[in-house]
Amino acid sequence: MPMDPLPDLASLSLAEIARLADEQKLPPVDKWNPSHCGDSEMRIARDGTWYHQGTPIGREAMVRLFSTILRREPSGGYVLVTPVEKLDIVVEDVPFVAVEVKIDGEGPATRLTFRLN
């Protein structure tokens, strides 16, 4: 059965992303526990660029898809996870970089919303 297209997370607010997660429009990676299968031969550079076998991944839609199945393990490492496999991915610093911030409200009601790469 084909999967519904993934939403463009960069254009959504944090509340909208939370709603999508609640509606299970994002992969439930926290519920998947497949066996470890090896190394994905992928890495995320400090500047947020995703690489496979040393070559930058140029297709933005592909990076966006991979970003939805990225999970941090209790050990501190990162994996790409599906219902049937788990592959290591090297993250040089952090997997996502804030590229824009939106400030709403004032004082204790101030809310920061970040757009990630």
What is the topology?
Blueprint lengths: L13 H9 L13 E9 L5 E3 L2 E2 L3 H9 L1 E3 L5 E4 L4 E6 L6 E7 L6 E6 L1
Parallel strand pairs: 1-6
Antiparallel strand pairs: 1-2, 2-3, 4-5, 5-6, 7-8
Give an overview in words.
This protein has 117 residues and is an alpha+beta fold. It has a single domain, classed as duf1285 like fold, CATH 3.10.540.10. It is built from two helices and eight strands, in the order H-E-E-E-H-E-E-E-E-E. The strands form two sheets. The chain has a six-stranded mixed beta sheet. A hairpin with a 5-residue loop joins strand 1 and strand 2. The mean pLDDT is 86.
Number of helices: 2
Number of strands: 8
Please give the domain count: 1
- Spans of at least 5 consecutive residues whose pLDDT stays below 50 are none
Q: Under CATH, the topology is which?
A: duf1285 like fold
CATH architecture: Roll
Which CATH class is shown? Alpha Beta
Which percent bin holds the helix content? Answer: 10-25%
The SSE order reads HEEEHEEEEE
Q: What is the straight-line distance between the termini?
A: 29 Å
In one word, what is the shape? globular
Describe the largest sheet: 6 strands, mixed
Radius of gyration over C-alpha positions, nearest whole angstrom: 16 Å
- Sequence of strands across the biggest β-sheet: 3-2-1-6-5-4
Question: What is the beta-strand fraction?
Answer: 25-35%
* SS-based class: alpha+beta
